[in-house]
Amino acid sequence: QIVKPLNDTMRGELASIASEVIFKSNSSTELHEYSSNDLNGTLSYLTKIYQQLYIDQNFNLEIALTGSKRNTIASAAISAAFKISHCWYVKPAKWDTKTFSKGTGKKSYFQITL
Fold first, then answer.
1. How far apart, in Å, do the first and last CA atoms of the chain sit?
2. In whole angstroms, what is the distance from residue 3 CA to residue 35 CA?
3. Which of 61, 65, 70 is nearest to 42 (CA)?
4. I need a surface site. Which of 18, 34, 41, 57 has the fewest CB within 10 A?
């Protein structure tokens, strides 16, 4: 299962390219697209996948992410609420702030309860 952000930013374009490479090289992969700002959608999707894989089919579930801070929040919340085998964070070997990211965006705060 691959969740990628909507392709509306430079970061989204890069994530889209990476996810397409993985999708095309693995025949059993499913690709799903959510806005990085859609925390509820991402949480709902991860909950559905947990139900399908862990509860219904007795598979371990691991999460690997390179995504946005909000996707990280969703993954942390799911990991706190459910039995997730591993949660992996992949970071780039080199970060070029001149071409990839500039400054910070508008701040937002979330209260997540179980």
1. 24
2. 10
3. 70
4. 57
Gap between the Cα atoms of 83 and 40, Å rounded: 20
DSSP 55: I
Do residues 78 and 50 touch, judged by C-beta distance below 8 A? yes
Q: How many CA atoms lie within 13 A of 10 on its CB side?
A: 7
Q: Has this prediction a pTM greater than 0.85?
A: no
The rounded distance, in Å, linking the Cα atoms of 79 and 87 is: 8
**Range 85-103 average pLDDT:** 70
Return all residues near 103 (Cβ < 8 A) that are at least 6 apart. Answer: none
73 HSE (CA, 13 A, CB side) = 16
Q: Note whether 68 and 5 are within 8 A (CB).
A: yes
Do 33 and 62 meet the contact criterion of CB atoms below 8 Å apart?
A: no
67 pLDDT band, cuts 50/70/90, is low
